[in-house]
């Protein structure tokens, strides 16, 4: 049994970025193995959670066709992934929200289970993924499980004009889960990186 029942966790696909390193395209709609990246992320997250949502800021109809609720940022001007966290927390109807970005199609299939175990074991409010690169711990802050009660805190933080994820998570009890397979977190920020994800 998982530490937190699956039905208490809502999964949020973060697809609200500018995609500037990919030439400004809507990254979540880029094709990967025959499906849009955001759809690949939805399918991978679906067995790990009880409900799903997408955060996107462009081409909302295309995202809506994926069959789950779509919420744009309430904050203007693409202030970064925390705006997506905020949109998700505002709409989340379960005690926990977990986020994954749309550009990392091979993320672990036990992501949520392991984040939930750490959150409970460490009595934390947030559990975040990390990898090790050249012996250095590399946090993967957009892979984040959080208690929905943090909404008020994030509203206050973003209203103060703050944007940095680690500045916000640093205000809370935060567990870090190290995943050995760093390749699973390879994300396509450029067209070249998206190409590298395709099988040869
Ligand atoms: N809601 C929302 N999500 C964002 C924003 N900026 C980035 N993200 C998301 O955060 C995740 C990680 O961001 P990046 O990989 O830097 O993606 P990006 O912003 O689309 O791409 P770049 O413009 O090239 O940095 C992705 O899932 C993005 O969709 C934003 O302003 N609002
Ligand atoms: Mg990225």
From TrEMBL:
GO terms for molecular function: GTP binding; metal ion binding; molybdenum cofactor guanylyltransferase activity. Mg(2+) binds at residue 103. GO terms for biological process: bis(molybdopterin guanine dinucleotide)molybdenum biosynthetic process. Its cofactor is Mg(2+). Keywords: Cytoplasm, GTP-binding, Magnesium, Metal-binding, Molybdenum cofactor biosynthesis, Nucleotide-binding, Nucleotidyltransferase, Transferase. It is found in: Cytoplasm. Residues 11-167 form the MobA-like NTP transferase domain. One of its GO terms (cellular component) is cytoplasm. GTP binds at residues 14-16, 27, 55, 73, 103. Its EC number is 2.7.7.77. It catalyses: Mo-molybdopterin + GTP + H(+) = Mo-molybdopterin guanine dinucleotide + diphosphate. PANTHER family: MOLYBDENUM COFACTOR GUANYLYLTRANSFERASE (PTHR19136:SF81). Transfers a GMP moiety from GTP to Mo-molybdopterin (Mo-MPT) cofactor (Moco or molybdenum cofactor) to form Mo-molybdopterin guanine dinucleotide (Mo-MGD) cofactor. Monomer. The N-terminal domain determines nucleotide recognition and specific binding, while the C-terminal domain determines the specific binding to the target protein. HAMAP family: MobA. NCBIfam families: molyb_mobA. Belongs to the MobA family. This is Molybdenum cofactor guanylyltransferase. It comes from Pseudaquabacterium pictum. The lineage of its organism: Bacteria, Pseudomonadati, Pseudomonadota, Betaproteobacteria, Burkholderiales. The gene is mobA.
């Amino acid at each position: 049994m998982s530490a937190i029942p699956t039905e208490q966790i809502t999964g949020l696909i973060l697809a609200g970025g500018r995609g500037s390193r990919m030439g400004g395209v809507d990254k979540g709609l880029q094709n990967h193995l025959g499906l849009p990246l955001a759809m690949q992320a939805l399918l991978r997250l679906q067995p790990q959670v009880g409900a799903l949502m997408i955060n996107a800021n462009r081409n909302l109809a295309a995202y809506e066709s994926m069959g789950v609720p779509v919420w744009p940022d309430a904050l203007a001007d693409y202030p970064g992934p925390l705006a997506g966290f905020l949109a998700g927390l505002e709409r989340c109807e379960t005690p926990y929200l977990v986020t994954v970005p749309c550009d990392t199609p091979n993320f672990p299939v036990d992501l949520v289970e392991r984040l939930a175990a750490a959150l409970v074991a460490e009595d934390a409010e947030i559990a975040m993924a990390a990898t090790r690169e050249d012996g250095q711990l590399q946090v993967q802050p957009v892979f984040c499980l959080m208690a929905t009660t943090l909404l008020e805190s994030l509203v206050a933080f973003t209203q103060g004009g703050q944007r940095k994820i680690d500045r916000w998570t640093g205000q809370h009890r935060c567990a870090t889960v190290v995943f050995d397979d760093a390749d699973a977190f390879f994300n396509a920020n450029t067209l070249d990186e998206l190409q590298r994800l395709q099988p040869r």
